[in-house]
Amino acid sequence: MFFTPVAPAVLRRTAYAPSLERFLDDTLLTARQKGYSIEQDDKTVTMSFDMPGVAKEQLSIGIEGSVVRIGSLEGAPRRYKAAYELPQDIDVAASDAKLENGVLTLKLTKKVPVSNVTQLAIN
Asked: Where does the CS domain start and stop, copy by copy (predicted)?
């Protein structure tokens, strides 16, 4: 006697499936689909984040060298915490942040690298 399956067999997910799915989502989704975008030119880096329902008083933005940390404070309707490392240090005094219509936009000015080259005299 032969048995033929009528419906396709149900595959069991392994323990690694959630992390694999998250990895594929992170690599295949564009930054805009994830809720943020990063653009840069020679002098500035512009970062935009979707944060609907969060007031500017409920956000904390910290910059240390080339690392930008963004987080929501206690009492915010959404919890958000992320850190981004940029390729160059940021000039905090010349940078700007604004929250408008649920979109946080950071316009970060890159620091001009200072050359520490000393000329050596030839004898």
From this structure: 31-121
